[in-house]
Amino acid sequence: MRPYKCRRIEKEPEIKFFKPNGIPAKFLEKVVLTVDEFEAVRLADLNGLYQEEAAEKMSISRQTFGNIIASARRKIADCLVNAKALKIEGGEIEMKRNFFCSNCNGTWNEPFGTGRPEKCPKCGDKNFRRVNDRNEKCGHGRKGRRCANGN
């Protein structure tokens, strides 16, 4: 058996519990969707990435990604069709922060909790910014600024 590899995710979900309207949670069967399954759904179904690209973002094989997304879709369908609650928790995950250097167009990531990098590891420039999948290389930031190309 191959060793288990942590899955890289961009961020944990803000809302971690969903249920059908009008039915108290105590009466519902609960299905657990792991955080890595949630990330797979976000990358493939919301962001529209192909499995190979999404697997690369999560630092796993395409086959592993395929297994994760299939499991996630089954669980979500079970909740929708059979009126079950969905709880998002658990999984072997690793969170990374993504950075972009405008000097060399380099991108890299750093684990959460390690502080801000001092310089770009590729060119040594100190003028770089943090990015994510939704605004890569655009620097939208917290205030929703737009870059020159309108992205």
Automatic annotation (TrEMBL):
Task: List residues traversing the bilayer.
Answer: none
Which domain of life does the protein's organism represent? Bacteria
Q: Where does the UniProt annotation place the signal sequence?
A: none
HAMAP family recorded for this chain? UPF0251 (MF_00674)
Name the family: Belongs to the UPF0251 family.
Q: What name does the UniProt record give this protein?
A: UPF0251 protein EVJ48_00520
User: Which organism was this protein described from?
Assistant: Candidatus Acidulodesulfobacterium acidiphilum
Q: What is the lineage of its organism?
A: Bacteria, Deltaproteobacteria, Candidatus Acidulodesulfobacterales, Candidatus Acidulodesulfobacterium
